[in-house]
Specification:
The chain has 16 helices and 13 strands. With about 400 residues, it is an alpha/beta fold. The protein has two domains: about 120 residues, Rossmann fold (3-Layer(aba) Sandwich), CATH 3.40.50; about 270 residues, P-loop containing nucleotide triphosphate hydrolases (Rossmann fold), CATH 3.40.50. It has an eight-stranded mixed beta sheet, with helices on both faces. The chain has a five-stranded parallel beta sheet with strand order 2-1-3-4-5, sandwiched between helices. Helix 6 crosses helix 15, helix 8 crosses helix 10 and helix 10 packs parallel to helix 11. It is elongated, with a radius of gyration of 25 Å.
Length: about 400
């Protein structure tokens, strides 16, 4: 007997489907789920084998289908007869390959039996998602993903990320700046991008539909010939709209176009019960960015509280990214604190080895001027802070003088 879950989402076919499945000698309906989240929670119980769901159900995406398969539940969709071909294309993109016409519900028990039999014999080995066409994949060297992270307390992650990306772009290096802070994106406002559409949310939707490759240019905003920005969440509560795997796909595609700088959140905590619903936790954006990173820039404040948080966070970070190079940036360094760079360096290296250590001087006037104007620090003119950012960029890009044969230009 095949145990079935049903999600009709108010579809007119629900009554007939329940009757057909109930009268069949091979199936039994375990539960009529209210919506897709209810279905995912029911699937996690491990008692069902098949989910019969409406092709247009809200929340039916690649992450939901993957959650069902992970718990041994195989999806079978019911689509309207007048839109069967279009529904098949969209469903295949999210990983659903078995579709029944709503005017032929008498075949539903056979379709349920067939998907279970195929899974038993072949392990359901068909691809869950349509692979991108090989000819559309950009060729050439892949860029690096540089994640900018730091502990709580606003040490200046977004400022460092935007300034670093602008400096790399100034050196004629194609650069994509991504705002992946789950507690609310700020890069768009910082850089004067007054766009109501979030680049990250749009990219997540294209990932779900399998169209990110062809739509990638639409989720970016150009700030120059070598710098583009994917803006973050317009409101903090919308973090749940970014499906699992979306950040990784966005970063993987972005690195084919150049260097990638990612502004992340501060928390590294993971919810131990998140798998029950199949939905991500709030910090999955940060954790996904760190998991995809080739290098991590750790930003901490130069004051006593900031340094204490930085020291403790380095230990926690090493448990998350054990083999990734760490570059520590001590921000807002100023003489009034009463200690030297050597003193801070001894403290930082005493907690965990780092690949490099950089100090950024406090420049409140220059930072305020850039924020009010909605521009990058480099567009405000040369200063001690921009020169220090340039020293940080040396880690990943050669000097402008080397790239241009000795003809360095000032902005």
């Amino acid at each position: 007997m095949i145990v079935v879950l049903v999600v009709a989402s108010g579809g007119s076919w629900e009554t007939e489907a329940l009757r057909v499945l109930g009268e069949s000698s091979t199936t039994v309906v375990l539960k009529r789920c209210v919506d897709v989240p209810d279905l995912l929670a029911s699937a996690a119980a491990g008692q069902a084998q098949v989910a019969v769901l409406d092709a247009g159900a809200t929340g039916l995406d690649a992450a939901a289908v993957e959650h069902l398969r992970r718990h041994g539940v195989h999806p079978v969709a019911v689509a309207r007869a007048d839109d069967l071909d279009g529904a098949r294309v969209g469903l295949r993109r999210v990983g659903v390959h078995d579709v029944v016409d709503d005017l032929a519900l008498d075949t539903l028990p056979d379709a349920v039996s067939a998907v279970v039999a195929r899974a038993d014999t072949q392990g359901d080995a068909r691809p869950h998602l349509l692979p991108p066409p090989p000819e559309q994949l950009p060729s050439g060297p892949r860029g690096r993903v540089i994640a900018v992270w730091g502990p709580a307390g606003a040490p200046g992650r977004s400022l460092v990320a935007s300034a670093l990306a602008a400096e790399l772009a100034r050196r004629r290096t194609p650069t994509v700046l991504v705002d992946a802070d789950p507690y609310g994106g700020s890069l768009g406002q910082m850089l004067g991008i007054m766009d109501e559409v979030s680049g990250l949310l749009a990219a997540s939707r294209w990932v779900v539909s399998g169209q990110l490759e062809e739509r990638f240019a639409s989720v970016q905003r150009a700030l120059g010939p070598c710098l583009t920005v994917i803006t973050g969440l317009p409101r903090p509560e919308r973090w749940s709209e970014v499906r699992p795997g979306s950040v990784e796909e966005v970063l993987d595609l972005a690195r084919r176009h150049g260097e990638v700088v990612v502004d992340t959140g501060f928390s590294l905590e993971e919810d131990p019960v998140h798998d029950l619903s199949g939905r991500p936790t709030r910090n999955h954006l940060t954790l996904s960015a760190l998991a995809s990173a080739d290098e991590v820039v750790v930003v901490g404040g130069a004051d006593p509280v900031g340094l204490s948080r930085l020291a403790r966070s380095l230990v926690d970070l090493r448990e998350v990214v054990s083999a990734v190079p760490l570059h520590v940036v001590v921000n807002r360094m100023r003489p009034s604190l009463g200690w030297s760079e050597r003193d801070i360096a001894a403290m930082v290296t005493g907690f965990t080895p780092t690949d490099s250590l950089h100090f950024l001087p406090d420049d409140r006037v220059g930072v305020d001027r850039a924020l009010v104007a909605g521009r990058t620090l480099l567009e405000g003119g040369e200063s001690a802070l921009t020169r220090a950012i340039g020293g940080l960029a040396e880690t990943w890009a050669p000097t402008l003088r080397q790239r241009t044969g000795g003809r360095a230009r000032r902005r």
